[in-house]
């Protein structure tokens, strides 16, 4: 895991914030790692404190959601917008998810919340984080 002592180093990089205790979220991170051949995505658990250090306080939703957030170009994306923005960084076939931007955001977020609400039932809860490969470890911050 990389420690970014100077947050300016992380400012221009897209960062995926995920619930480190959620099996579904950790599985999603594994998919992103596998299909991000450009290796331009970085990852941090919501529990790491990186979000609070990187993103201006007014932009952070309160209460802090316990699912995936995405920070890119100085902006924090939540819910389905976060997922679809992440998909733009991924290779085919996962990148196809980005076409769902044509669906109205209210419906996309309804579906997102439904999955998020049931994610522990879908994939369980874990108290341990995944172990990234040595190559992947440099892309985790916090």
What descriptors fit this protein?
11% strand, alpha+beta, 7 helices, 142 residues, four-stranded mixed sheet, 4 strands
Describe the structure.
This protein has one domain (8-137). It is built from seven helices and four strands; from the N terminus they run H-E-H-E-H-E-E-H-H-H-H. The protein has helices at 8-11, 23-35, 50-54, 79-87, 105-117, 119-123, 134-137; strands at 15-18, 42-45, 69-72, 75-77. The model has no long low-confidence stretch (mean pLDDT 84). InterPro entries: DCC1-like, DCC_oxidoreductase. It comes from Pontibacter anaerobius. This is DCC1-like thiol-disulfide oxidoreductase family protein. Pfam families: DCC1-like (PF04134).
What's the short story on this structure?
The protein is of the alpha+beta class.
Radius of gyration: 14 Å
How many beta-strand segments? 4
Poorly predicted regions are none
Helix content: 25-40%
Counting helices, strands and paired strands, the structural category is alpha+beta
Strand order of the largest sheet: 2-1-3-4
Largest sheet: 4 strands, mixed
List the helices and strands and how they pair.
Elements: H1 8-11, E1 15-18, H2 23-35, E2 42-45, H3 50-54, E3 69-72, E4 75-77, H4 79-87, H5 105-117, H6 119-123, H7 134-137
């Amino acid at each position: 895991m990389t420690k970014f002592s100077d947050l300016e180093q992380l400012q221009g990089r897209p960062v995926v914030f995920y619930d480190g205790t959620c099996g579904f979220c950790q599985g999603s991170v594994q998919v992103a790692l596998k299909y991000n051949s450009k290796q331009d995505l970085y990852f941090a658990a919501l529990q790491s404190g990186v979000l609070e250090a990187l993103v201006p306080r007014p932009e952070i939703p309160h209460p802090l959601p316990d699912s995936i957030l995405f920070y890119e170009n100085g902006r924090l994306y939540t819910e389905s917008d976060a997922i679809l923005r992440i998909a733009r960084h991924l290779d085919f076939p996962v990148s196809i998810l980005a076409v769902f931007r044509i669906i109205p955001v209210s419906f996309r977020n309804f579906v997102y919340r439904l999955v998020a609400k049931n994610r522990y039932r879908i994939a369980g809860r874990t108290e341990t984080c995944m172990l990234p490969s040595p190559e992947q470890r440099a892309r985790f911050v916090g």
